[in-house]
Records
---
Amino acid sequence: MERRQALHALAGSAVVAALPFGRAHGADAAPFKIGFILPMTGQSASTGKQIEAAAKLWMAQNGSSVAGRKIEMIIKDDAGVADTTRRIAQEYVVNDKVDVLAGFGLTPLAFATAPIATQSKTPMVVTAAATSAITEQSPYIVRTSFTLPQVSVSIAEWAGKHGIKNVVTFVADYGPGIDAEKFFKSQFLLNGGKVTGEIRSPLRSPDFAPFLQKVADLKPDAVFVFLPSGQGAAFMKQFGERGLDKSGIKLIATGDVVDDDQLNDIGDVALGVVNSHHYSAAHPSAMNKKFVAAFEAASKFRPNFMAVAGYDGMHLIYNALATTKGAGGGDALLAAMKGQIFESPRGQILIDAQTRDIVQDVYIRKVERVAAMGNQLYNVEFDVQKAVKDPAKVK
Ligand code: VNL
């Protein structure tokens, strides 16, 4: 492996030397292609819409060439269907000869593409899907989103320290939901709590009513919820309609449920919900204020955590290409992605060189109506755990 990387670096520098003025790749070099695969239609369409807008904003702000190499971004819709993701990835690699694969709105879509990244030695930048095990499916996977264990542990700890003794967990029945359920529970037990029920709802077209009835019957102090981005509004509506918001059962969650994309539509039923996540549009840094203003001006909607992962994914790819002086190459790009540290609109992030997964701050937030921000609903951060590694990968 090391030998191959060394050889690759050598080959790369030979190309540089052969060109006039050491200019690695001028305007005549082939464009550097980034092939995004995103759900632009179907149940997870908001994820595609957010990441597309963010990637375009990155390019508008940072230009469409790196080290003299023209960047070509392609975006294709898989509608959230794994067979389609796999077919598009194959076409990208074989016909378009993309330099990087990117996107992946749901865990099964990332799993379906991993073998193609491995076989073709193409870096695969995951800007959405968040099951811990994704990065272990290919040595070419790098992630700029988050993992469910990473964000579930903080809210479990918060709950244990704030008088919540019994919790029912309520998660989408697939990879990230099972991660959330497991890591919430183990941390909550450590903090002296008890899980009195574990409910899973189907990923596709769920009807939350029967599960919410179960929660009401179990009467826990709180229900901990993970649902993928896009399902929060429907869940919260039924939560309110069934009177659970007034039942004395607290709602705690990962930030996916009170996602910035939908938060204003969810409305007052979300007020006071304490949740943990790695990004809020209300994050009070100067960089984030600029990011949100530029995003909203360009897109007419608020960026959510998917947008910031798409934006940072582009940042990561640009940095890697610059490191190779425009030469690219799967192994060289991958090596340049490992260990990158930079400031994101969410705070500082690191790509762990060993796991290729993201290390980042996780915030505890509360949904509030913010007078100073147009009287809109936001997740207001009130506590932070710094530089959290994916707990599923801490041995
Ligand atoms: C996943 C995880 C998807 C968290 C999500 O929204 C999310 C996934 C579409 O890994 O499938 O919020």
---
Amino acid sequence: MELNEVREKYLAFCKKQGHTIIPSSSLVPENDPTTLFTGSGMQPLVPYLLGKNHPSGSRLADSQKCFRSGDIEEVGDNRHTTFFEMLGNWSLGDYFKKEQLPWFFEFLTKEIGLDPQRLYVTAFMGDEKNGLPKDSEATEIWQQLFAQVGVDAEVVEIGSEADGYIKGMSWGLPAGRQGRIFYYDAKKNWWSRAGVPENMPVGEPGGPDSEVFYEFTDVEHDSAWGEHCHPNCDCGRFLEIGNSVFMQYIKQASSTGSEQADDSFGLLPKLNVDFGGGLERIAAVSENSSDIFLVGPLWRIISELQKHTEFEYGSDPKITAAYRVIADHMRSACFLMADGVVPSNADRGYFLRRLIRRSVRYADKLNLPIGTLASVYAVVMQEYQKQYPELTVDHSDAIRAEEDKFRETLHRGMKEFTRFAGDGSISAKDAFQLVTTYGFPLELIIEEAGERGIKQIDTEGFKELLKQHQDLSRAGSEQKFKGGLADTSEKTTRLHTTHHLLLKALQIVLGPGVKQRGSNITQERLRIDFSWPEKMTEDQKREVERIVNEKIAEDLPVIRNEMAKEDAEKLGAEHEFGAKYPERVSVYSVGPKNATEENPQLDEVYSIEFCGGPHVTHTGELSESGTFKILKEEAVSAGIRRIRAVLE
Ligand code: SER
């Protein structure tokens, strides 16, 4: 079954069960300073999983574009990609396990036509120290579902992934029988954005999950992974195709301290379901193909590349891996560019640059002529434009420009390589510099060294350096995560409301043409990027501060309104440049003084913005944090200024 067909079938199936189909959010998260990219379907929905009402109701479904930068080095095998579409359905306090699991099973077996004999499922075995119970309800539902299609489904308490390699599919069962439903620990069957329960910051939602795996009976277990195979084994015999998260818990501050953690979870206001399924993987298993690169758009990108070289996909593992890296990386690059990312040395632009640079190196391995990579853009446009209209603008010139620029860097990198290799070895530091500054992937350094007869490469030391580097950036992003809007703490919420007051004040002082171009809010400070061509004068800054403080002193009501997108636009509500919104939207208005939820007096507001919240109910609350003050006003790029401000 083709990708587009699977997507259509899934959305139609969800619609039949009463879901509203919502558009995919951008790969660049809107109003979420906690992360660089949208990496899962639930990310844009966090405020609603935490209990806020969604304007489109309590049953939602979509196909969400995702990019996982952490997976760049994994790409090359038959199933890992950095970009993917995640099919999603959500219950926001509506249905729960006994609806979700049967629906997904029905979708796979009836709509896609998968043989239930090929399906294996997992459930959460519980976590005593955190007071989280075993999910026996999920296993009972699965047993009934398998029984209905005549499959005897045995339950195996496999425990951890490491246990799996030792115990395998038949552990604890009578001879000749094997498991179908497997219990694993929190490492495998607990989902939160921060991972296992211990790693979750206070205020983060999470819950036990139940995954479905497809078995490729023609793939032999590879004992390099352990003696026995099991659903979570990485040998490639089993492929995860969907995950139902029962999002019902929230991490709370433990009253007894960290050693006694069993009171560290509370219940969310409602029981939610967060389901995510890999579209490309489901399409691949519908054709019983264990190689997802052999189906759909990825295959058509590879076919296009093959026209320009004598090397054939599948002829040799290295050649095959090179094709996979290019097809994956270039597709990700196209989608990122379509969402406004440009190659640079920082943040999102850095990842885009890395994707293109890695592709250039692998293109050389395949003898692809210079400029071939840019031609992938046209294939991606043709494949995805119907679903993702943002792919109508052609960015192939920018890819070509980046390739040309990189070739100059590469030329210098090769000189460095020769210099480093002068003493017959490549040290950890040399390798690290080649990877981070010159964009050489490690495997190519090893190859290049091999060709030059250099035997000593300190790959272990290099990995250690890389890990230190990653730990540092992870610590940085955890800091961001804790302090970000998503933590919905009082301090952050107050600064979020202040942010609305500030945007309007800027428009009053500088002119109505001022538009927001980015935002980032932590517990300590707010940051706004806005369109304005020159440095603000001292007087302008003082006047903006005066207005914001005046609005705080007036104690204006802050009101959330739901309305048709069209009506919000007519009211002149501010919205993020380039963002896509559903038909019904959430809008926050500030003022006038006597506005109420029943009568928000939208013609008289001080400020009105498309926004998912959260906000304080009255601006007077902000004075409890202090007075509004601009700390810094500076340029970020041509025509864009940035303000950092605080309440103190
Ligand atoms: N949040 C879960 C995941 O990303 C399911 O959507 O796997």
